[in-house]
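Researcher: We're teaching a course module on how sequence relates to structure. For the next exercise, students receive a sequence and then see the predicted structure as tokens, so they can try to spot secondary structure elements on their own. Here is the exercise chain.
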Amino acid sequence: MLLNDFLEKDLVDIRHQPAKDWRDALRQSGQKLIEHQYILPGYLDEIILNVEKNGPYIVIVPGVAMPHALAESENVLGTAISFTKFPEPVVFDETNPDSQAQLFFTLAAKEPEQHLKNISDLSDMLMTDGLIEQLLAVNSVEDFKALIEKVS
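Model: And here is the predicted structure for the students to work with:
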């Protein structure tokens, strides 16, 4: 299961400080991927540029963001998804109340096929009834582990 993957690869990050703004949130949400050498910091710059250009397309449902840039980026070294939860919602666009997210699933993929599979797997997982609410209630890695045991 995808949630287990995040845990096994040490890609779960439960933040206790709010992000300064959405750019800061995106940088923080990519830290574990940088730490484990799935991406270079430049990948996060690409995501930020995309959001500046195209608006908050990465907010897939209110409360959930799926930051990603092109699979062909030379700043992507491997394929992985990290999970970051912020203590309060991060607002991408003040004029759009739906453009806020507290749960960030940052995607890195070497090949376009893998990228699409990640997006599809993640979307399927997030359709699980009540899962988003349960993830919003997680306040530590221990809570995250308990949630996995509950849903597996």
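Model: If you want an answer key for the exercise: DSSP finds seven helices and five strands in the chain. Residues 112-126 form the longest helix (15 residues).
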